[in-house]
Amino acid sequence: MHASLRKFAILPLAALLSAGVAQTAAASEREKRFFEQMEGEWSGPGEIVAGKYKGTKFVCKFAGTTPDGKIGMALDGGCRVGVINQEMSARIERSQSGYRGSFLDGAKGKGLDVVGGSVKDKYVVFALHRNELTGAMRAQINDKDTMNVTISVHVDEELVPVIGMNLKRLDARTVGALSAQ
Q1: Judging by DSSP bridges, how do beta strands 123-130 and 133-143 pair with one another?
Q2: What 3-state DSSP class applies to 31?
Q3: How far apart, in whole angstroms, are the C-alpha atoms of residue 126 and residue 113?
Q4: In Å, how far are 88, 91, 102, 133 from 85, measured between CA atoms?
Q5: Tens digit of pLDDT for each residue in 88-113?
Q6: Burial degree of 73 (CB within 10 A; 0-12, 13-18, 19+)
Q7: What is the pLDDT of residues 55-73, one digit of tens each?
Q8: Structure pTM?
Q9: How many CB atoms lie within 10 A of CB 156?
Q10: How far apart are CA 77 and CA 85, in angstroms?
């Protein structure tokens, strides 16, 4: 009798575990598809909307890629204000403990660390950290050719937007591949 009770107790547990694995696989596939939309060449204007340099306008150009066999993204390129160019890069991958990565050279250098994040249907939000500074980056893909990026920082208890960018896809190759599906 005890052996048959154990058998019935193990079956629901096994079903729960396999359902959890299926949900994780579905989430992983959804996240992978989202990041694949970021692949390609992007360019567009941005503006500093708060702080000491409020009102400063700039233009950015990035190449988006995804890491082989992993879920995440990389953006490489730069932004230009007048004749001054600033290289920009981001590398973010999902690990067992969540999303991790860096902007520029990370918090140990002149950049920021990515310490978490989540992917929704049309956008991703990453948690940012550098010393006492915390904030978030939100990238929303409105359609296959348009991406809006907002970087915000915590001021007291409020999350305040400080940088906004409106990027357009430049590479027809990726657009054609997406529309052919």
Answers
A1: antiparallel
A2: helix
A3: 10
A4: 9, 20, 20, 25
A5: 999 999 988 899 999 889 999 999 99
A6: buried
A7: 999 999 999 999 988 999 9
A8: 0.77
A9: 5
A10: 10
